[in-house]
Amino acid sequence: MDNADLISRLLDVIERDIAPVTRKGVALGNKLFGAAILRKSDLSVVVAETNNEIENPLWHGEMHAIKRFFEIPVDRRPDVKDCIFLATHEPCSLCLSGITWCGFDNFYYLFSHADSRDSFAIPHDIQILQAVYATPDPDREQAHADRPLYNRTNRYWTSHNLSQMIAALDRSHKETLLARFDHLNALYGDLSEVYQSDKGNKGIPLA
Ligand SMILES: [Zn+2]
Fold first, then answer.
1. Quick one: residue 203, left, alpha or beta (phi over 0 = left, psi -120 to 50 = alpha)?
2. Cα distances (angstroms) measured from residue 27 to each of 63, 117, 132, 202
3. H or E segment at 104?
């Protein structure tokens, strides 16, 4: 399978498996972040989940997917090393740690931290990484402004930005997949409007 096929399949999973459960979650007052865990062997979905912060502020889309994954009996659950981790949005510090502690060696995401802040009005990913983790350079007053906020490739995992992967494809694949990205962007734009119109009313600490 080449990259275009992999990207296409992951966009399918976002559209058909994650977005439908997210639509229900958002209607209840949850954020629009979702995640899925797939088998590397055939790209079949093991779990697809969505944010459930109205139940517990730790149930981000990724954490909720991890919780459901480990609720599968061990004899029916694939090894994490045989799985792809897919997030609709670049994982926050909590979810980066969750993915790491569970032993996944990869994750893929569609929308970046900057997208979450700028397109979805959720600034907390970047704010938490800066406020909690970015220690100042001893020679400067503050952390270096353009320093990466985490190591996108490290000894535990390699992260993959689907938008950047699409941009690197040849022209015909790129045009097809960009059209699908635009469609998902509009779909998540609609979900964001629903969330933003009612946010702050469901007891989520960082709404
Ligand atoms: Zn998170």
1. left
2. 20, 21, 31, 11
3. none
The domain at 3-198 falls in which architecture? 3-Layer(aba) Sandwich (3.40)
Find the 175 Cα to ligand 1 centroid distance in Å. 30
CA angle 33, 169, 118 (to 5 degrees): 35
Kindly report, residue by residue over 171-199, the tens digit of the pLDDT: 999 999 999 999 999 999 999 999 999 89
Whole-number Å distance, alpha carbon 191 to ligand 1 midpoint, is 18
What is the model's pTM?
0.95
Span from the CA of 53 to the centroid of ligand 1 (angstroms): 10
Domain boundaries along the sequence of the chain: 3-198
Q: In the block, which residue shows the tokens 């976002």?
A: 14
Q: 115: CA distance to ligand 1 center in Å?
A: 14
Give per-residue pLDDT as tens, 96-107: 999 999 999 999
Per-residue confidence (pLDDT) for residue 142, from 0 to 100: 62
